[in-house]
């Protein structure tokens, strides 16, 4: 069964990240429905672990999107070398690195310097303290991933357009 899914490592990781995000969102909705019965402080460890798991899944997903973008560029621009470059073992290592990077980037949520607090009345979250360094790390990593994806897909479309002529 594992042999069948070897070429779908990246899709399976994105599926798992989406499933975790759905579970966390369901937890937040249930919390909103029953928060009068169960009053917890936003600084509780449970809330921080929820944000940590949610953030780790989100960052793993974003990292995987970047890896998939590079994978597509290599597939289109260098089709002969593609199988040699993206082997099963490399794909497994890339998946492990994406999960590890997502966990590392999300780990400051467990430290008091970089709390992410939920404000259910406004359906939003905010950093606490507001001017934490983690805001800038969040912005830089998000921007780098978005830039990588944009450059990779632009290059892929450029290669496809020039090869069609």
TrEMBL record:
Q: Where are the transmembrane segments?
A: 6-31, 43-62, 139-160
* Superkingdom, taxonomy of origin: Eukaryota
Please tell me whether the keyword Transmembrane is annotated for this protein. yes
Keywords for the protein's UniProt record, in alphabetical order: Membrane, Transmembrane, Transmembrane helix
Q: What is this protein called?
A: G protein-coupled receptor
């Amino acid at each position: 069964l594992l042999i069948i899914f070897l070429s779908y490592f990246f899709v399976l990781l994105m599926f798992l990240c989406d499933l975790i995000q759905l579970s966390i969102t369901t937890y937040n909705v249930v919390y909103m429905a029953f928060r009068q019965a169960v009053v917890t402080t936003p600084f509780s460890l449970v809330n921080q672990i929820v944000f940590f798991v949610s953030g780790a899944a989100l960052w793993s997903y974003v990292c995987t999107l970047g890896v998939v973008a590079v994978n597509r560029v290599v597939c289109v621009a260098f089709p002969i070398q593609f199988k040699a470059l993206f082997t099963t073992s490399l794909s497994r290592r890339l998946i492990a690195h994406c999960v590890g990077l997502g966990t590392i980037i999300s780990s400051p949520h467990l430290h008091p310097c970089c709390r992410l607090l939920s404000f259910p009345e406004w359906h939003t979250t905010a950093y606490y303290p507001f001017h934490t360094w983690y805001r800038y790390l969040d912005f830089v990593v998000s921007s780098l991933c978005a830039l990588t994806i944009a450059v990779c897909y632009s290059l892929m479309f450029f290669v496809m357009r020039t090869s069609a002529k």
